[in-house]
Design a protein that fits this description.
Helix content: 25-40%
Distance between the termini: 54 Å
Oligomer: single chain
Radius of gyration: 23 Å
CATH class of the largest domain: Alpha Beta
Largest sheet: 8 strands, parallel, barrel
Shape: globular
CATH superfamily of the largest domain: Luciferase-like domain
CATH topology of the largest domain: TIM Barrel
Number of strands: 16
Number of helices: 14
Length: 454
């Protein structure tokens, strides 16, 4: 008897604050107007995706002291958008990025539990551990967390949120024709927490949500991030999308689960990937090249190198060779507000120079190479086959699909690749009736919180 094929899980990433999105595309529309979010959400639901995913920007990026407007500028509040999207969808999960550094557990737990109720159990939280003073300047904290401290704060934050969500039993609110609605005896427990980062006292004021608690998503890749994921996360938004790299990451993170008494399927690993579909492989490769040139225009190429060189490179030709000067290692930098903006060290610069010389790459061509996400390029059947292989060989449990235009970038995938996956028998043909996000992801009941009390 043959073993059933592993099923593919898919999430849809709304265009975010990065150079993946081609805002110069003539079909590109507003990143603020609700019509963009509505089209994207309805189309992802048409494609039977597990959930849609919104990133969040808490401050405008800056470059050389000015607003960096090459990617995207405005970014509305994530929870407000997800609440609105809940009203125009029925099945798809709603996952938003929300910082554990610049929020408080009680208030965020209330907001997420409320979204879970409003959506009938479709809410998820992508926990990010923002460390920097640039974003902190807009918050009472007004400073930053050392990188070794941010996961300690996040762990306490998530544990306390879980304790708040779990303080209501299922069915705690009882309806009675004569007495109206009342609390069942001993169905609600007070929360008393005093820890290094947070305090909470009293009763949580939102009843237990339809799926027990929102699904926890996380994207950290450091050793501390992987440990955090193995304890708390139910989905990992990974950058390890190639087959062999994905297998290594999959084994490492899922190998940590047993220490927390967790099974392999209690955590889904979904790397991010873009796609380009052509009627032939050759057409797909040509379209992918055109897209890359649109994503990394001349200004973007120079800006990328300036972030690494930490100095003004305006005078250099983006279609010419790399700068003949070294990075300003002692400088203050030119970029603020970009995640993972790193200054190149001597060895990294040497490797870039060697690569550019060996392959005769211009600045722009090198930046395209360095900034490219994992991308599926080919016919719809080829892309479906690649996705299926990753899942069957345990390089991932599926993918977060990132379109390159807003809001229509997902349309081709839904129209062409999804039917191919269904034909292979590895993707649903309908949502389960009444399913929560946890059900759709085939996750177990939420784990009880373990809160460290100081």
């Amino acid at each position: 008897m043959s073993t059933p094929k592993r099923q593919v899980h898919l999430a849809a990433h709304f265009p975010g604050v990065n150079s993946t999105t081609v805002w110069s595309d003539p079909r590109a529309e507003s990143q603020i107007e609700f019509a963009s979010f509505e089209h994207f959400a309805r189309n992802a639901e048409k494609g039977l995706f597990d959930y849609l995913f919104l990133a969040e920007g808490l401050r405008l990026r800056e470059h050389k002291g000015r607003i960096h407007d090459l990617d995207v500028v405005g970014r509305p509040n994530t929870l407000a958008v997800l609440a609105a999207v809940a009203a125009v969808t029925e099945h798809i999960g709603l996952v938003g990025t929300l910082s554990s550094t610049f929020n408080e557990p009680y208030e965020l737990a209330r907001q997420l539990a409320t979204l879970d109720h409003l959506s009938n159990g479709r809410a998820g939280w992508n926990v990010v551990t923002s460390p920097d003073a640039f974003h902190g300047a807009n918050f009472r904290r007004g400073d930053f967390l050392d990188r070794e401290d941010r996961y300690a704060r996040a762990a306490e934050f998530v544990s306390l949120a879980k304790e708040l969500w779990n303080s209501w039993d299922a069915g705690a609110v009882v309806a009675d024709a004569a007495a109206g609605r009342f609390l069942a005896e001993d169905a609600l427990r007070p929360v008393e927490h005093r820890g290094p980062h947070f305090a909470a006292s009293g009763f949580f004021n939102v009843p237990r949500s339809p799926q027990g608690s929102p699904v926890i998503v996380q994207a950290g890749d450091s050793p501390a991030g992987r440990d955090f994921a193995s304890e708390h996360a139910e989905v990992v938004f990974s950058r390890h999308a190639s087959l062999e790299d994905g297998k290594r990451f999959y084994r490492d993170v899922k190998g940590r689960l047993a220490a927390w008494g967790r099974a392999e399927d209690s955590l889904k690993i979904l790397p991010a990937a873009t796609f380009t579909i052509g009627d032939t492989p050759e057409e797909a490769r040509d379209l992918a090249r055109q897209t890359a040139l649109a994503q990394v225009g001349p200004q973007t190429a120079i800006a990328f190198l300036e972030q690494a060189w930490a100095r003004d490179l305006t005078g250099y030709d983006p279609d010419g060779p790399l700068p003949d000067i070294d990075p300003d290692y002692g400088g203050a930098g030119v970029v603020a507000g970009r995640a993972n903006a790193a200054t190149a060290g001597p060895e990294q610069v040497r490797r870039w120079r060697d690569l550019a010389a060996a392959e005769k790459l211009s600045i722009r061509e090198l930046v395209i190479r360095l900034s490219a996400r994992e991308s599926f390029v080919g016919t719809a059947a080829q892309i479906a086959e690649t996705i299926d292989r990753h899942v069957q060989e345990r390089a991932s449990d599926g993918f977060v699909i990132v379109g390159t235009t807003n809001p229509y970038g997902l349309d081709g995938f839904v129209e062409k690749v999804v039917p191919e996956l269904q034909e292979r028998g590895v993707y649903r043909t309908a949502y389960d009736a009444g399913a929560t996000l946890r059900d759709t992801l085939r996750l177990t009941a939420p784990r009880e919180a373990r809160v460290a009390v100081g």
